[in-house]
Amino acid sequence: MKEKIPYKIYLEEHEIPTQWYNVRSDMKNKPAPLLNPGTGQPLKAEDLEPIFCKELVKQELDNDTKWIDIPEEVLTFYKMYRPSPLVRAYFLEKALGTPAKIYYKFEGNNTSGSHKLNSAIAQAYYAKEQGLKGVTTETGAGQWGTALSMACQFFGLDCQVYMVKCSYEQKPFRREVMRTYGAKVTPSPSDTTNVGRKILAEFPGTSGSLGCAISEAVEAAVTQEGYRYELGSVLNQVLLHQSIIGLEAKTALDKYGIKPDIIIGCAGGGSNLGGLIAPFVGEKLRGEADYRIIAVEPASCPSFTRGKFAYDFCDTGMICPLAKMYTLGSQFIPSPSHSGGLRFHGMSTVLSQLYHDGLFEARAVEQTSVFEAATLFARAEGTLPAPESSHAIRVAIDEALKCKETGEEKTIVFGLTGTGYFDLVAYGEYNSGKMKDVIPTDEDIAASLAKLPKVD
Ligand SMILES: *Cc1c(COP(=O)(O)O)cnc(C)c1O
């Protein structure tokens, strides 16, 4: 008989990966290049370097190098909160009465409360290396802004955060964590940038969106000497850094000879999902193994399931490059939902290409059913999950319940990207029965897609 799997599979410190894995190296169909919106030509390093740090541009454009060394300073920082545990959800399995074996990779064990710190510390490191004064960024729910504030503070960099207005108002505590770590936080859209003033004039009273905040942060970076812009999701470089999640998860599973049948992650811009599935998709791409992989997105912002695979702007202000991705249109402003981290109109180009090529499936779930799953998980497993993460929980539970019907003992692994301690307004709404599901109509989506830029 095999030994009992522990509740938490921890790796030793020396088992933390020392290289990131670049899944693009194993893709036959590479993600489409970013295009200059003015000329329609693929962007080269020199086009991107005024906006992003030099080394990060290199990583962004590198579709070939399979393994990229994690700098020593970044590895040292990782040791503060990594390796993250892979937890066997025995209590959840029991609560569901399922024969399925459920595991979750828990990334909420750091003050930023999410996986975003994995990329924030890398991005701050490369900014410091380049001798910059500081960086600008946007934040939706606040997790990325918090992570980057922590990382910048560690390396003595200035950090300016444009925070989506509805989150700024819903989550004052997030704002204060960022300020505690020394960041300057501005609600977006704001009157501090040209693009912000334009959006405010066009959509007075808007609750903001990630797309608007990105436009403002980019403008702030290019108009200040010694500053660059950093982004917490969507980009190839971010998926690269987040591969640490999947590499650790795979090492932990391999240690006990466990092969997952289903791997599930929530998808906003795609970074945690891309990171979690990277080594597994790599095996699929190389024909070495097969897994069923499910991306879960909110029904209020369904890029994969109802969007179009097309070139689009990454931001509402239409100043950022064009990316070929599953998109709802850069002018799509999702209804205010409690999963701020999933409120982005587009998706990583890497994941978009993989999805297009059939390497994984996608599912959209409604907010109330997400909070029902979150509550069930919190009660069974103890940890209060982030609303974003709870999208993955929802589908993990649904799959486990299917196993209950069929009697199959499938192994399910999902990404628990963060904790929900700053999301208690949302939990409050759910607990008092006031939460609503707002789903865009086909007309809403068609109207937004009609404004896609003409490329191809
Ligand atoms: C930002 C965030 C997400 C979504 O972002 P991805 O880039 O799609 O991973 C998911 N969960 C949490 C907790 C987040 O903070």
What can you tell me about this protein's structure?
Helix 12 links the parallel strand 10 and strand 11. 42% of the residues lie in helices and 16% in strands. A 7-stranded mixed sheet has the order 1-4-5-15-10-11-14, with helices on both faces. It has a 4-stranded parallel sheet with strand order 8-7-6-9, with helices on both faces. Strands 2-3 form a two-stranded antiparallel ribbon. The chain has 18 helices and 15 strands. Helix 15 crosses helix 16. The protein is an alpha/beta fold. Bound molecules: pyridoxal-5'-phosphate. The site of pyridoxal-5'-phosphate has 21 residues, from helix 6, helix 12 and helix 16.
Based on DSSP secondary structure assignment, what is the total number of beta strands? 15
The CA-CA distance between the termini, in Å, is 58 Å
Q: What is the helix fraction of residues, given as a range?
A: 40-55%
Q: How many DSSP H or I helices?
A: 18
Q: Biggest sheet: strands side by side, in what order? A: 1-4-5-15-10-11-14
Instruction: Tell me the structural class.
Output: alpha/beta
What small molecules does the structure contain?
A: pyridoxal-5'-phosphate
Mean of residue pLDDT values = 95
Q: Major β-sheet, in short?
A: 7 strands, mixed
